[in-house]
Structure to design on (166 residues):
C-alpha cells in the first residue's frame, strides 16, 4: 500500500480528523431530527386525538427510527473511513504522542448511544396511555347545605370554636 501523500505534514491528519468530526456533527443532527420526528407523533396525538383513543405511532415511529439509524450508520462509516486514511499517512504526518484513535472512539460511543436510542424508541411502542389516562379519577366531593337552603346560596362551613384564654 502506498502512502496517501508525501507532504510529511501533520495538517493532513488534522484535516482528516476535522472531516470525521464534521460527519459526527451531521450524524448527531440526523439522530436528533429522528428523535424529534418520532416524538412529534406523540405530540400530535395529545393535541389532536381524544384522550380515550390509544396512541398509534406507526409513521412517526418508522421515520424517526430510520433517521436515527441513518445517523448511526453514518457514524460507523465515517469512523471506518477515517481509520483507512490514518493507516495511509506517512510517519511525518503523525505527530509524536498524538492519539489519532480518540476521535474514532467518540464516533463509536455516539453510535452505540444512537443504537440504544433507536432500540428504546422501537421497543417502547404499542398501546401506551397518556398522562390523563393513567391518573385515577378524582374523588367526588360532597358539599353539605343547610336544610331548606336553595342551590344558589353558598354552603355553610362549620368551624370549631377556639378555646378562650383563661
Amino acid at each position: 500500500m502506498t502512502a496517501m501523500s508525501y507532504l510529511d505534514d501533520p495538517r493532513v491528519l488534522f484535516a482528516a480528523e476535522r472531516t470525521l468530526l464534521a460527519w459526527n456533527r451531521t450524524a448527531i443532527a440526523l439522530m436528533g431530527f429522528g428523535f424529534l420526528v418520532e416524538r412529534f407523533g406523540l405530540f400530535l396525538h395529545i393535541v389532536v386525538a381524544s384522550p380515550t383513543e390509544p396512541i398509534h405511532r406507526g409513521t412517526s415511529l418508522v421515520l424517526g427510527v430510520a433517521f436515527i439509524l441513518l445517523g448511526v450508520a453514518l457514524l460507523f462509516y465515517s469512523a471506518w473511513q477515517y481509520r483507512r486514511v490514518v493507516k495511509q499517512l506517512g510517519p511525518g504526518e503523525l505527530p509524536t504522542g498524538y492519539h489519532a484513535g480518540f476521535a474514532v472512539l467518540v464516533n463509536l460511543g455516539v453510535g452505540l448511544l444512537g443504537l440504544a436510542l433507536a432500540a428504546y424508541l422501537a421497543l417502547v411502542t404499542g398501546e401506551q396511555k397518556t398522562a390523563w389516562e393513567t391518573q385515577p379519577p378524582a374523588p367526588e366531593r360532597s358539599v353539605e347545605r343547610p336544610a331548606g337552603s336553595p342551590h344558589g346560596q353558598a354552603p355553610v362551613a362549620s368551624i370549631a370554636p377556639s378555646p378562650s384564654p383563661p
Summary: The mean pLDDT is 78.
